[in-house]
Amino acid sequence: MTAATYLRPGLPVPVPENDGLDAPYWEGTRRGELRVQRCKACGTWQWGPEWICHKCLSFDIGWQTIEGRGRIYSWERPWHPAHPALKEQGPYIVVLVELPQAGGIRMLGNLLGDPRQDVRIGAEVEAVFEPHDDAKPPFTLVQWRYSGR
Amino acid sequence: MSGRTLRGKVAIVGIGETTYYRHGKSPDPEFKLALKAVLAACADAGIEPRRIDGFASYSNDRNDPSRLAAALGLPELRFSNMQWGGGGGGGSGAVANAAAAVACGMADCVVVFRALAQGQFQRFGAAPPGGTVSGEPAFNAPYGVMSPAQRYAMRAMRFIHENRIAPSAQRAIALASYHHAQRNPRAVMYGKPLNEEAYDASRWIVEPWRLFDCCQENDGAAALILVPAERARDFPKKPAYLLAAAQGSEHRNAARVHNAPLYATSSFTTVAPNLYAMAGLKPADVDVLQSYENFTGGVLMSLVEHGFFAAEEANAFLVPENLLAPSGRLPLNTSGGNLAECYMHGLELQVEAVRQLRGESTAQVPDAHVSMVISGPMVTPVSSMILGSAETLQ
Ligand SMILES: [Zn+2]
Predict the structure, then answer these.
(1) Residue A43 belongs to what domain range?
(2) Which residues, other chains included, contact A119 with Cβ-Cβ below 8 Å and sequence gap of 6+?
């Protein structure tokens, strides 16, 4: 049974790209690991995933597990339901989180908690893994909440 | 500037539009709308449609040039071109591509067009239900980020934060479009004025954008006819000469999952300098501006990046009186634009830019000689262009 999720069920189910590029990320989140790309040749962090390092053009890109913490870089609060699954949802918060410990790459997620709360750009947040075990196929999202709560 | 330039080499001598409808309300299917706009542009240019020898469009327009050429019985097709990606960001790029073909002799009479019938096809602002997503959408859709508004609000919010943009700045952009639409009987929002109170009371679509910050979605078609500048005086209407066009975006703009290094931009930081360099003009030379409103915050950043004011001056500059024809400092979206005339995916802005140089606008700027269009902020590639009267070529 899937525990309560931030957004109501029925949104599109994320699956790895058919060329396998982002499979390590999606496999990692199922295990509670946050994995992003880091170039083995020059150490550059890279997100979203790509086949080549944008800095040194090496194809030897590795995946590194990182600590799920960052700070809010930007945010938005959708009200209008763009998808049928969101018709009864009401407002919700999406944050773009910057990860200083991984070269400042950014990741997207929902900010857990009251959907009408104030959002502070620059505030520290931590990752929360949100499993969707009943989805077909099952997947786990990385969500965010204010640190120390 | 090197000798390699489009400046003054091509002119727009015909403009055509269908009636503009609310989305899903066109009585005609999309292909018929495209044909009607092309024929209207030919009539405006005073030419026999069979003189057309090329087509250019953008955003994966569904109306294939070969089918158009067959339907119209063209003797030959010499140029067909699609601007990659970028949604409405391709509007000026499509003009640039057509102009390049004309300037270098690949074709003599190229139509730039865009047609949309959203009753027949999926709307942009509504996501398809269910299913799976992969790649970039897999990192967005499960978090409820699916529509263009949801995709780009994140960029605008960062810009608003960095530059302390007041809500009144975005509001002024919406008010300008609605104000001008009240003088334009073609506008879908003609007879539906907007004031500050109604804007402030309107519902959020996605913070920081209210209903009136977001473009309409519409059905219709628009077309332009481009010919070599040396033939431009053979046509009945005053020619609009292309002074410059530029497309593209800055370093790693499309880095996935919102990782563009310069995130809080409308994508024009490198494009705009290229545009002015080709035109040999500066922002103060622009008499009238049409700037694509997908969302008002995108217009705001576009104006900054095209040098009309600095980010820290935005709150002071963006008041309605500065943006209104005939006498504002920078008359903006004088037909009503995407917000209030019609979301013809931005091509109605090119049509209006030509009208301003002819003196045919319903919100005419007196003595307009330099007329700019900015296409599709925040996407990539974006594009922009500058048209000029015959006087600007001297
Ligand atoms: Zn590298």
Answers:
(1) 19-66
(2) A72, A75, A77, A93, A95, A111
